[in-house]
Design a protein that fits this description.
Distance between the termini: 5 Å
Strand content: under 5%
Oligomer: single chain
Number of strands: 2
Radius of gyration: 19 Å
Order of helices and strands: HHHHEEH
CATH architecture: Up-down Bundle
CATH topology: Bromodomain-like
Length: about 160
């Protein structure tokens, strides 16, 4: 039971902590997220929820850890896709490239100029050692995937 609470706390901490860091980068340092950046936050929210579920119901820690591993892997996949868009390995399918339609009228142009344009997904605002936040997210999410699998395997067939 002790491991179940520890693993649940770690899941809640990692999920919540990643979201807090993303919001600090956005609102504290003015790093505007693109749509793919926002999509990368969803798995962390789900992991935090899984952690809180594990805290309330420690007897379900085994499926919680399996779901957490799958969620982290999904997050790594989204981040890898975003990293590929940033590197111009492929175009984004989310429509965040900033392409404008060729058929519009002057009134449409005025409305477009007054609206704040969405940040393009291939624009990198911040890097550390030449790696963007999406790149670091790939690495971190894969690490967390392996950690969740390890935690699930460490529980094994023992009663939790």
């Amino acid at each position: 039971m002790e491991n179940a609470r520890l693993y649940s706390k770690l899941l809640a901490l990692v999920g919540s902590g990643a979201l807090i860091m993303a919001y600090i980068a956005q609102f504290g340092f003015g790093l505007e997220p693109c749509i793919l950046c926002l999509y990368q936050r969803i798995p962390y929210a789900l992991v935090a929820i899984l952690g809180f579920i594990g805290l309330k119901k420690p007897h379900v820690i085994k499926p919680v850890l399996v779901l957490a591993a799958l969620t982290f892997f999904t997050g790594a996949s989204i981040a890898a896709y975003h990293f590929g868009v940033e590197q111009h390995w492929w175009a984004s399918a989310t429509g965040c490239s900033g392409d404008a339609s060729t058929s519009f009228q002057a009134q449409d142009l005025m409305q477009m100029m007054q609206q704040k344009q969405a940040k393009p997904c291939d624009a990198v605002d911040w890097t550390l050692f030449g790696i963007s936040m999406a790149g670091w997210n790939v690495l971190f999410s894969l690490f967390c995937t392996h950690a969740a699998i390890y935690a699930r395997m460490s529980i094994g067939k023992a009663n939790v």
